[in-house]
Amino acid sequence: MKDSIVSINNVSKVFKDTIVLNKVSIDFEKNKIHGLVGRNGSGKTMLLKCICGFIPVTSGTIIVAGKKISKNTDIPQNVGIIIETPGFLPNYSGYKNLSFLSSINKSISKEKIKATMKRVGLDPESKKWVGKYSLGMKQRLGVAQAIMEEPSILLLDEPMNGIDKHGIQDMRDLLLQLRDEGKTIILASHSTEDIDTLCDTVCEMDQGKLEVLR
User: Is the pTM of this model over 0.85?
Assistant: First the structure.
């Protein structure tokens, strides 16, 4: 595909005798939101982990923004990630957590961190420890971490998890804005409404196999 930014070709992942991904091939076009649906254990999260290089594939190739992902490849810098529950330092505030993480790459300013927190509905001036955050607040902070360095690709595994009804609408609006700003988003979700509302394409995972639905 000419505008493909993530290209997956005949990818399999096997643990001992268990096939977790079974000859998956798909191209994800840039500047769109791509939905991944399927039951727990269907392979959605594993596919995301392989795309970002967390787990090496058994066979096949994954190319992200022109770069082949392998066990010797660093996690691509242009990818923002939420996979499973975001991990933060519980005795730090949300702002302090993001400030600490951003200092590793020294790529963004304090003002940018604060603006990103506001964008996801969090108060950057709050001194509340992340350990006292609700699950929904942690998810918001996870989204802030994923987007604060303005990556071109976002891999989001159940990003609405724990967020209340009002917050879900805010998060949907944010994801649509990010797409309109030129981001490519691969979104794994159990929510039919999220998928229908947000996604330009939809794929289903079932027992490690992928089928394009639309």
Answer: yes
